[in-house]
Structure formats: structure tokens, C-alpha cells
Amino acid sequence: TEVPFFSDRVGQGLSMWKLRSAEEGTEVRPSIGAPLRTLCKLSGRQVWEHTLEADDLATEEAVERAREEYVANRRDHGVKHSGDELLRIQCCGAGYKDVVRVWTPLVNTAEANREQSASKDGAAAAAEKGSGAPAKAPVAADVDAAMLGGVQFYEQLQQEDGHWPGDYGGPMFLMPGLVITCYVTGAMDSVLPAPHRREMMRYLKNHANDDGGFGLHIEGHSTMFGTVLSYVSLRLLGAAASDPVCQKARKWILIHGGATMIPSWGKFWLSVLGVFSWDGLNPVPPEVWLLPYTGKSGIGWMHPGRFWCHCRMVYLPMSYIYGARVVGPLTPLVESLREEIHLQAYPLIDWNKARNECAKEDLYYPHPLMQDALWWTLYKFENLLVAGRPLAFLRRKALAETMKHITYEDENTRYVCIGPVNKVMNMLCRWHQDPEGEAFKLHASRVPDYLWVAEDGMKMQGYNGSQCWDTTFAVQALFATGMEAKVHQCVQRAANYIETTQVREDCPGDLEAYYRHISKGAWPFSTRDHGWPISDCSSEGMKAYLTLEPYLGEFISDDRLDDCMNVILSYQNQTGGWATYENTRSFPQLELINPAETFGDIVIDYDYVECSSACLTAIVAFIERHEKKRSGSDGGGGESKWASRFSRAHLEAALRRGVSFIHSIQKSDGSWYGSWGVCFTYACWFGCEALEACDRVLGTDSTQRLTKAADFLLAKQRPDGGWGESYLSCELKTYSQLPELEMSHVVNTAWALLALLKSGQQARDPAPLHRAADFLMRAQLPCGDWPQQHISGVFNRNCMITYANYRNIFPLWALGEYKHLVLSAGEES
Questions:
Q1: How far apart are CA 187 and CA 174, in angstroms?
Q2: What is the dihedral of CA 768, 771, 772, 777, to 10 degrees?
Q3: DSSP character for 383?
Q4: Cβ–Cβ < 8 Å for 646, 626
Q5: Any residues with CB less than 8 A from the CB of 9 and at least 6 apart, and which?
Q6: Residue 598: predicted pLDDT
Q7: CA-derived radius of gyration, the chain
Q8: How does residue 98 score in pLDDT terms, banded at 50, 70 and 90?
Q9: pTM of the shown model
Q10: How confident is residue 369, by pLDDT bands cut at 50, 70 and 90?
Q11: Rounded mean pLDDT of the chain?
Q12: How far apart, in whole angstroms, are the C-alpha atoms of residue 417 and residue 2?
């Protein structure tokens, strides 16, 4: 049955989506769900509830208007990103855009660029506009007004538990796994009731590309991966095959070779649903978990326990599901889909050939010949492992081993799991183990943690949120503005969240047996219940606390800070750099067996400039804090002993190794490549920040390297004073500008401005800084918000992801640093 698409009306009243945070959302779980498990009273949990609560007409109209404007902007202007309007309407009121906090007589940049686009000679207009961009410093009072308006607006979005919620969607391949899992397990009506299905269909229909296909992410070109999974999801959610969106998507699929051309992850999900044969998938044998881990064995270097944790935790349940050949019921809809998505009749498909087929639109990482030979060997060997064959006992042992690790992951994340892909796979595994068991019900209760609702519909996020990450950045940005006292309660709430979210204990049991790193003292990316420790999140958590401490006093003990420093130091690799969740455990050559045609660099945990910089700057802040404490310059009295169990000499040695790594990955043009944000502007901020901070403590001189990084950025500054970097930089690994006539990007501009300030550009020539600050002020909306523009985050080189809070955090941070280092350092306004 087709679900009504746009209607939100139930009876004579209006049904509304409400964001519930922390304990307010305790009962937001499916009807089959078990009570939630938590270590922190659900602090940071952000879930959307569909409720019949009465709301005023203005709110109803604002929500509908936001939805209509999104559709119109996408259709008429190609704007694919939502603006998180439902969150803003709920937190700030239906008429929030009409509130004027910021006024500037300067031309609105977006309007000017639209006028340029409509002009006959747009390029000339852009050049003329650029040549007239002011190069003198903005008036300090105007900068203060912009920052105050931005802070006052952003404060409204903060939740009572202290975190800032926001959209963390973007990838198009996440939600289909949930939809298929719910369909196969028979939990669709409970886990995804009609209002959820309606919003999911809204989201999918809104993000269909003009050619009828769907991308890997919301801004990407059409791919077989995105299109087949989105088409199947629409059908499972209730859309008819005759639906115009479905018709166009099916046409795209068939024109491009049919569903056998889908990449391996897509083949996996279609096999689970029953519209693809397991024989058409390259093997994912659970037996690899029985291999010896020790490197002395040789084969141990290929053990999945050495994989990057996200890769490991996806292929863990995937191998269980593959080994157990989990397949859903053959319903009339499944039978119909078999006919709809393939070029050939289903019984005639050559599944052996299909194993290595992949559409050119999807092929980011082609299989090397060695990998094809490996899959062929395992494919032939697979027949010996199935039930009734000689090695069936080995398969049973392997399935038991993988289930042991799946259960450990579930229990240690309170059934949130490390990410959305393994979340729904683990959920399917636990259902297969026991359809009526408690574990499946606990999984169902945590599904809402991954769902987000905006004006473009309901999406599945790339994590259970970015709560801790965003809050640590928000704290540093607020203090950069110097306006923390004006929003004291906001600062206090943020401090509470940071204190609550620190991980207090390591995971239980033998960490080595479960391939886990220490976590006591770390900060996670999202919530304490999630709990996975990360190098840069721990570092930013510590830096946020050390920013707060002089203002609020000590509220995290020296022992807990030492625990965090212990984690940070433990992450440093032999290269001197830092990876993400764990140390690098094997060799880059292992990437030769990367089976995911769509993603790059997924098999091991690599060193990154972002993680390394975050750790280096945290160590510097830690040293400076203890030096102030020891000298008594923190207001605590006379000189005292060094308060940390880590000596300054030990910390400085880590800094020197880290700086050498930062040097080693700086490119010849002065830039760094960013792996977690778009892209060179993001990485240059981290690179410059690390070098400048280490110079302060080590007494080194990085002027030459910093100047080279600044020259790289200055060459990319656009006529309107800002920077506009396309996500294509991530894919192509070369700087790619946004289209010439588009407005520059406020987030890229803020990163570039922060990098230039750290490089000391203000002492060389402050004019580019004035133009950048002027752009950020002109781009600000009267209500104090900044516009949502192109997507800002990335992972695995090729997939983009949303960081909705960046548009508020980084312009404030950049303007604050600009005022402090430029206007307050002697520049005349």
C-alpha cells in the first residue's frame, strides 16, 4: 500500500515531529523495544518523536513552508542540502528568521551572486565585484555585533543537557540497510511506523537526481549503489512501481546494466532481501576470525583484528550473515523486485559473472588482479564449508566466534554500535540468533538514535550524532569571541555535557582478545553510551575543558586529565602521527584486499593531519596548563610541583615526533590533504595550528612552512573575499573550486581564516584577513544564523557527510580570533 507522501494531518489535529534530548526521550523507542541501557542518564541522546501534541498554526505553517522552500530551491537552484529547519523552528520559534540581531549596510553576498548569475556577463560582474571588495579592516564594533548575534542565535539550539544537536546525514546508502533489515525481520510496522516511512519516502524522493538516479551521497552523481538501494527502499516503504520517482530510478538502473552492476555492499543487502543470490557475492568468510593474530605467523598481519575498527566492525557481522546465508521471506513484493531491477530473468542470471561486475559510475577503487584471484579461490573453497560438507564444523566454529565479538560490541555500546552500518547488521545477526530475544529488542530501541528529521525528510545519520565533537568545538569558538560571560548558562551547560561524556572505564574483559584499545579517560565522538574512544575527540575534549577551567574553576580532576593524556599518548604511532580510534596495526599493502569498490583507504587505520594536530595541540595546552599551575600564575598561589604523572620531557618528546610527522606530510605547495573535512582548507587549519602551538612550547621556528601554507591558501581566495572548496577536492586529491558564480562557503572561509591567523599572516599583510572577515559578516543572516551551503564533511575519500553545526561554530571562531589577533593587536578599524 502506498503511504501518503506529504500529509502530516491525523484526524482533525496536526501531528508534529518533536526533538527529544536525553531523559526527555526515554520512552522514544519502538513498541517492540526493550528499556534503554545507559551510563549517563541518556545524556546526548537526540531522537525525533512523532506526536499528536497540539502546536500553534504558525509552527505548522513554518514547517510546511520550509518543506516547500526546500523542494523549490532544489528544483530551481540545485540546492541539495537541507538547512535543519525543523530543529530551528522548534528551538527558536516559527518566526525566527524575522528576528534581527545583526545589521550591516554591506551588500548581501548571496543576493549579489544570484544577480551575477542572471547577468549576461557573469564572469565580468564577479571580477568587478571582487576588485571592489574592501581590503581595510571592518569596524571592531561591527565584528562584535556579528559575533554577539551569532552567539545569541546559536545558544538557542543548545539542549538542556548541554550538547548541540544537528543533522549528521548525507550518505544515501545507510537508510536502505535499516529498511531491508526491518522488512526481513518483520519489524517494519514497529520500528518504522507509517509516519517514519512517510518521512523516509519524502527524503528519498527529494534526493533523486535529475537523471532519475541517486548518488552515494546527497550531492553526488548518480551511482548504481545509491540508485538500486534507494529504489528498493522506496518499494519496501510503500511506493508503487508506477510512482514517477520509482519509474525514473528503474529506468536509470536498467540503462546502466541492471542490479548485477551494484558494488559489493549493495550485493550484500540485496542478497539479504532475497533479490540477489549469495552466489553472486564475493566471499566474506567468517573463518578469517579464526586465523592467528600474531604477526609472527605471517598471516596474522591480515587478521581482521588489525583492520581499521569501522572496517572491522562492518565485515564482522557481514561475515556472520554471509556464513549463515541469512535471507528474508520470499514475499510477492520480493518476487516483483527480482523482476524489476535485473535485465535478465532472475533464474537466468550468471551469478559467478555478477561477482565482479561493478558500474563505472561506482568504481572508485578497482579490484587489483591479486584480489580477484583471492576471491576466486575462496569462492571455490566455500562449497566445502556449507552444511553437510566436510568442513561444515569450521563454519559453525567461525559463526560462534563472530557472534561472540558481535555481542561484545553490542553490550559495550549499550546497543548503539560504532556506526549505522554495523548497527543494523548486528541487529539482523541478533535476530537470526533469536528472533524473540532480548538483544533484538535492545537493538530496536536504539534505532531512533540514528534517525534525523529535517525539511527534506527523515534520514539515517552517519553516527548516532556528533554531539561531543560539536560541543568541544562550540566551547572553543564561544571563548574565542570573548563573549562567554554574556551566555554564562550556555557555557555552564556545555561544561556539564563535556564532564558527563568523558569515558570513565576501559571496556570489560580482555581488551586484546576483543581487539580493543584502552578508553579510560577518552572522549567519544557522540555520547558516553556510545563510548568508542577517538584520538582527536579525546584531544578536543581536553582542550575544551582546559578552555573552560579558568572561567568555571576545576571540575575535572588531575587524575582524569592524566587518564585522557594516557589515551592520547598511547595512540601515537611509530611514524610520530596519530590515527583515529586505534594505533595502525598492519601495513598499507593490506589495502590490496579492500573489497569495497566505492571507498578508499578503509582497511587499516592511517595517520591523519587532523588527528595528529588535535593531539599535538592538546599536549601543548596540557603542558601550558600545568606550567601555569606550577608557577602559580593561574591564581592558585605560589609555585607547586608538576601535577601530572607525565613529565614535561616525556610530553615534549611526543611533540617532536608529532611535528616531524606534520612536516613529512605537508605537500610541496604548502598544503595538507584533509581526510575528514572538505578538504585542503580544513587540513591547512589543522596543520598550521599544530605548528604554531608546538613552536610556543618547543621553541622551534616553523615560519617558513607556515608562510608556504598561507601562500597556498591566499592563491585560492575568491573575489568575494571568501574561500569555496568543492567536495571534489576529496575525490581528486587536488584543490577544486566551487563554481565561479556561487557564493563562497562560510565554513571553508572560516577554516582558511583560522589557518592564516595561525600562520602569522596578520604580520605580513592583513588585507586578505580583512576581506575574509568582511565576507563572513556579509554572509551572516539578520537573525544571527549563517546559511547552510555545500556539504562539509567526508570519510574514506569518496563519501561526503553533513556537519550542520559547522556553519555556526567556525564563523564565530574565526571572527573571534580575527578580532583578537588583528583588530585588538593594533590594527586601526
A1: 18
A2: 160
A3: G
A4: no
A5: 15
A6: 85
A7: 26
A8: very high
A9: 0.94
A10: confident
A11: 92
A12: 32
Residue 771: HSE in the Cβ half-sphere, 13 Å Cα cutoff? 23
> Would you state the pLDDT for residue 9?
46
Grid cell 564561544 — which residue? 478
User: Are 663 and 694 spatial neighbours (Cβ–Cβ below 8 Å)?
Assistant: no
For residue 41, the number of C-alpha atoms closer than 13 Å in the C-beta half-sphere is: 7
Pairwise CA distance, residues 747 & 678, whole Å = 9
Of 496, 476, 758, which is closest to residue 618 (Cα–Cα)? 476
Q: Are the beta carbons of 17 and 161 closer than 8 angstroms?
A: no
3-state per-residue secondary structure call for 50-83: EECCCCCHHHHHHHHHHHHHHHHHHHHHCCCCCC
SS3 category, 799: strand
Q: Is residue 536 annotated as a catalytic residue, yes or no?
A: yes
pLDDT reported for residue 631 = 85
- Write down the catalytic residue from 410, 456, 536, 563: 536
Q: Would you give the distance in Å from CA 378 to the centre of its chain?
A: 34
For the chain, percent of residues with pLDDT exceeding 70: 93
pLDDT of residue 133: 57
Return the pLDDT at 104: 60
Residue located via cell numbers 601562500: 711
Query: Residue 816 CA to chain centroid, in angstroms?
Result: 25
- What digits encode the pLDDT tens for the residues 63-96? 999 999 999 999 998 899 999 999 999 999 999 9
CB 491 within 8 A of CB 551: yes
Q: From 407, 241, 233, 385, select the one nearest 317 (Cα to Cα).
A: 407
**Residue 21 one-letter amino acid:** S
Runs of H (alpha helix) within 666-745: 680-698, 703-714, 728-732
The C-alpha cell that represents 714 in the structure block: 591566499
Q: How far apart are the first and last CA of the chain?
A: 65
Q: Say if residue 332 is exposed, middle or buried (CB neighbours under 10 Å; 0-12, 13-18, 19+).
A: exposed
pLDDT, tens digit (0-9, with 9 covering 90-100), for 705-717 = 999 999 999 999 9
- pLDDT at residue 516, as a whole number: 97
Q: By the 8 A CB rule, do 474 and 494 touch?
A: yes
